[in-house]
Amino acid sequence: xxxxxxxxGTVAAVDLGATSGRVIVGRVGADVLETTPVARxxxxxxxxxxxxxxxxxxxxxxxxxxxxxxxLAHPDIASIGIDSWAVDxxxxxxxxxxxxxxxxxxxxxxxxxxxxxxxxxxAELFExxxxxxxxxxxxxxxxxxxxxxxxxxxxxxxxxxxxASWLTGQNRAELTNASTTGLLRVLDGTWDDALIAALxxxxxxxxxxxxxxxxxGALRPDVAAALGARSDLGVTAVGSHDTASAxxxxxxxxxxxxxxxxxxxxxxxxxxxxxxxxxxxxxxxxTNEGGVDGRVRLLHNVMGLWVLSEAVRGWERGGHAVDLPxxxxxxxxxxxxxxxxxxxxDPRFLPPGDMPARIDAWCAEHDLAPPRTRAExxxxxxxxxxxxxxxxxxxxxRIGRVDVRTIHIVGGGALNELLCQRTADRAGMPVLxxxxxxxxxxxVLVQGRAAGFVSGSLEALRDLVARTHPPRRYExxxx
Length: 479
What we know:
Blueprint (H helix, E strand, L loop, with lengths): L8 E8 L3 E10 L2 E11 L3 E3 L2 E3 L2 H18 L5 E6 L4 E5 L2 E2 L11 H9 L4 H8 L8 H6 L3 H6 L2 E4 H10 L4 E2 H4 L5 E2 L4 E2 L1 H6 L10 E2 L4 E4 L2 H7 L6 E3 L5 H7 L8 E6 L3 E7 L6 H5 L3 E4 L5 E7 L3 H12 L6 H9 L22 H11 L8 H27 L5 E5 L6 H11 L3 E3 L4 H14 L6 H11 L3 E3 L5
Parallel strand pairs: 1-6, 6-15, 10-13, 16-20, 20-21
Antiparallel strand pairs: 1-2, 2-3, 4-5, 7-8, 7-9, 11-12, 14-15, 16-17, 17-19, 18-19, 21-22
């Protein structure tokens, strides 16, 4: 890294979410942080005979198209960074992919949980990897994998590492995403060879680790030609777990705030500079995930806006046109006291399906009257998410020993005014909403710092976010 930042420059961010992807051009400098979307595309999983898969080749094709547009408009792009959701992987042999990656919502993960816990209980795993129990963590997926494929494969790459490999020909595992696999030694951030052996997994599957800010390598010549890019344009590792990138761009004081990275999932936590492997963290099902600059993201996964978006998809499949802003306006008119608050973290809400029917079933089991209209279901979902967020913030503050006085909501959830206000109300503290594109901004900032366009600590980068993307403030009310 250069000691003094230059006047500023441009990078490209490939940001792949669980429902959509985008390619964004970012300009970053000492007083500049701007992003311009050049491509947006759907990320639609595909169900075939053996389960639910990501259409990874379509995603890669769309990302290449976006990068081509980015290079055409900005030939001076200094680097490319890639982030995506966590845990899912592809198996390869000799560089050839052995089938599309499974989706983490596929039902096969239950078999993997049973297989792993027969060898090592979750409490023992937590001592080694620091992760909360989630049935789709990579180690459970690998335990459910076809053994014949594992025996044939020579490499396993998480989604952003796979895209980076196709771009550069280099196989590496970026640390923040690798920390979600359950297969890293939490104490030193290296592959846990003993755990890998105990689970009967081939050690050779797991490539060399790389840290955010490290240069992975130049584009392959054929890729550079296809993009119309310079031969020296390359990929820089960022916080390739999208939450790691998002937390970089939370304009917070880490010693006094909690964050909620809210999209399909709600990742609720605090940033600390040490591991929290206490019995409190274990029993509250909190996780220690790797952050940029060696920080620890102590957080809990809440089901997030998935429940609402899946309910909307169900209504639309039933022939009802749904305009989300109008639906949220109608939901805001429903009294909070008129709808049930349900447990959004109940496993029944994880797979795709009929969310209103599942809410009805939960209410019946708990002797509560279910919602009746789409507006009431929406208000019930928002109230339930807000309560889950408030509860997780309190737990994060207690477990992480952080004096939380403000909650920052970033990502798509920052646009949901009702959710932001009700989270403030239920938590009893201010909510600062934004930036919406926190993940892309964090991706851009790490690249920009590596290129010398900005310098300093995470606090300095967050100060730049606060100056260029001031958040919207929601004060708690008694409503």
